[in-house]
Design brief:
Blueprint: E1 5-9, H1 14-25, E2 29-34, E3 53-57, E4 70-73, H2 80-83, H3 87-108, E5 111-117, H4 144-164, E6 168-173, E7 176-177, H5 188-197, E8 202-205, E9 211-213, E10 215-216, H6 217-228, E11 236-238, E12 243-245, H7 246-257, E13 263-266, H8 281-287, H9 295-309
Parallel strand pairs: 1-2, 1-4, 2-3, 4-5, 5-6, 6-11, 7-10, 8-13
Antiparallel strand pairs: 9-12
Helix pairs in contact: 1-6, 3-4, 5-7, 5-9, 7-9
Length: about 325
């Protein structure tokens, strides 16, 4: 039996590179595709030169033809700083990029997994958020390029499933953190760690009582692997249900880094969700998914990664 090949779009990104590692460990051949707009070759340096790994420099908004049994579609800026920098490109990446991937899957018979997001729930009226919740999204706000882009990507997946029998999987990914996040990522965990390591003021938006649930990247990748190997097409929430206020996260980071940083507040951005916590009962039941790494456990290697990453600037 020939070895299965997996295509990972966004493969040089934070999550994508960790997924490449896991797929290779599982014995697959891997093709990582990325335009390096937010991903980094450095995330894949340790894989270059392997016979079972190949990197392709490619923008997913341009049609692509790569033979693969599985397609993991992760290509899209995922932090507000990056996806709001060029919102039109973000929408196009979500819609056209997903359409190109689904078209390839339709032509080749590949199984296609969409890395969707908890942002499809918007600023939720239901807490925690189950997959049955339809969401509360502002389609004209500054976050809509990502939120609505991912919602449309899900629509494309299910329409291809119904009309063309494409073998889809849809994962709704909640806040994820870990090594290989970009220093300028703009997400709350990376922001707080970089500020704390440099003893700068830690910026909290609003009163800091808004909540998030943080999943360590190894647990997330395990969830994606499990979903691709099951028959349920989703959508399925993948995340850690442990819920923390933003202020609690900041205090943990300060304690673990032994920082002298002080907390400062800024106005809350428009449409920023007040609560975010996944209901993962479906993932537990269908996938046997169990995110075992606590926030404190996951922050330690993440902090060490950032300590080395910013060392030249310190």
């Amino acid at each position: 039996m020939s070895t299965r090949t997996a295509l990972v779009t966004g493969g040089a990104g934070f999550v994508g590179s960790h997924l490449c590692d896991r797929l290779l460990t599982e014995g697959l051949k891997v093709v990582a595709m990325d335009d390096l707009s937010t991903g980094s070759r450095a995330n894949l340096t340790h894989l270059m030169g392997r016979k079972d790994f190949r990197f392709v420099l490619q923008d997913v908004t341009n049609p692509f033809e790569i033979q693969a049994d599985w397609i993991f579609h992760l290509a899209c800026p995922a932090s507000p700083v990056h996806y709001q920098k060029n919102p039109i490109k973000t929408v196009v990446t979500n819609v056209v990029g997903t359409l190109n991937g689904l078209s390839l899957a339709s032509r080749t018979g590949a199984r296609f997994l969409l890395a969707s997001t908890s942002e499809v729930y918007g600023d939720p009226d239901v807490h925690p958020q189950p997959e049955t919740y339809k969401g509360s999204v502002n389609p004209t706000g500054p976050r809509a390029c990502y939120d609505e882009g991912k919602r449309c990507a899900e629509t494309l997946c299910f329409d291809h499933y119904r009309e063309a029998a494409v073998d889809i999987r849809v994962a709704r990914i909640f806040n994820t953190y870990g090594p290989r996040m970009a220093v300028d990522d703009g997400r709350v965990v990376s922001n707080f760690i970089v500020q704390a390591l440099q003893n700068e003021d830690i910026t909290i938006y609003g009163d800091g009582q808004q909540t998030r649930s943080f999943c360590y990247v190894d647990n997330l990748v395990d969830g994606l692997w499990r979903l691709m190997n099951r028959d349920d097409i989703g959508p399925i929430n993948i995340g850690n249900p442990g819920e923390f206020t933003i202020r609690e996260l900041a205090e943990q980071v300060i304690a673990l880094t032994k920082s002298n940083s002080k907390l400062v507040t800024r106005p809350l951005p428009m449409d920023d969700p007040k609560q975010r916590r996944p209901d993962i009962s479906k993932a537990k039941r269908v996938l046997g998914f169990d995110p075992t790494i606590s926030l404190a456990q996951g922050l330690l290697p993440t902090i060490e990664y950032f300590r080395k990453a910013i060392q030249p600037a310190m």
